[in-house]
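Per your request, structure below.
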């Protein structure tokens, strides 16, 4: 094992689903300041979050001002927090009992005093495509009927934090072995944490491999590691994978390591070795498939 790893599976995966959905919604508020206050980039990475090990939170990049700060989402105890340049928490709003709109209003109150000027416009609220859940769906802070975040299962939120922390360490190590890899980023819309390995930057022959962790989604409710090539391979004969991985071709094509397969390895170090083995094997398989398709294209 080459990375530190916190044992997963001490909480029933079925209990993690509700915590994941609530954090997914809260991540929209935590990522909103970057849309307005960070310099725009072609890949929209100014909206992303990155795992910060000290505060154990998903944090945006530093916003400069009177008091430089980073907005972050902390899984446990669940809160949207403001960090200083040294990743110390300077303000926090616990999710429990609040609506998503209340979190936005809190940020709109706290941020101007840190940047030293009013916001040019309200923070952008989330659009469509978020997972359905009662928590955080209220339309206003004064709406008595508004659904509020509910942090009853504290252990489940802590488990989500362990998944993200482990994934960050694993993907950081993987990125270090691939020169064309991006930084490890959490994309708030899908709430996955991932790297993108660019193999060819020519627009006509561009090839990439994405590797990451999804904490769960509509088709797979529990966390899973994934590796996916782009373009998708033309071959229908996909190679066997090590580390308990399987291929999915429904909606997208990629290699997947589901929660049961990872947890079956055992605790701690065994889980880390399983995840490392899967990601390495899946990347190798995706490279082979892409090289095969590229060679066929060149011959034609």
């Amino acid at each position: 094992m080459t990375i530190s790893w916190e044992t997963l599976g001490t909480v029933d995966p079925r209990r993690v689903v509700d915590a994941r959905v609530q954090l997914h919604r809260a991540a929209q508020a935590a990522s909103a300041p970057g849309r307005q206050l960070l310099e725009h980039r072609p890949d929209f990475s100014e909206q992303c979050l990155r795992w910060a090990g000290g505060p154990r939170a998903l944090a945006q990049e530093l916003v400069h001002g009177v008091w430089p700060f980073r907005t972050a989402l902390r899984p446990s105890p669940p809160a949207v927090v403001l960090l200083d340049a040294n990743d110390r928490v300077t303000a926090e709003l616990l999710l429990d009992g609040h609506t998503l709109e209340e979190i936005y209003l809190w940020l709109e109150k706290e941020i101007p005093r840190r940047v030293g000027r009013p916001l040019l416009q309200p923070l952008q609220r989330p659009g469509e495509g978020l997972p359905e859940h009662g928590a955080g769906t209220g339309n206003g802070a004064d709406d008595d009927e508004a659904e509020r975040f509910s942090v009853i299962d504290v252990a489940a939120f802590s488990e989500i934090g362990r998944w993200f922390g482990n994934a960050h360490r694993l993907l950081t190590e993987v990125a270090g072995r691939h020169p064309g890899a991006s930084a490890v980023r959490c994309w708030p819309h899908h709430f996955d944490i991932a790297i993108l390995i660019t193999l060819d930057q020519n627009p006509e022959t561009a090839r990439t491999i994405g590797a990451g962790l999804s904490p769960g989604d509509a088709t797979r409710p529990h966390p899973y590691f994934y590796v996916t090539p782009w373009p998708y391979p033309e071959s229908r004969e996909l190679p066997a994978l090590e580390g308990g991985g399987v291929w999915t071709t429904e909606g997208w094509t990629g290699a997947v390591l589901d929660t049961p397969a990872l947890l079956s390895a055992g605790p701690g170090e065994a889980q880390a070795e399983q995840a490392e083995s899967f990601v390495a094997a899946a990347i190798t398989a995706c490279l082979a498939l892409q090289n095969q398709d590229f060679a066929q294209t060149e011959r034609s």
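Residues 54 and 140 are 33 Å apart (CA to CA).

Regards,
D.
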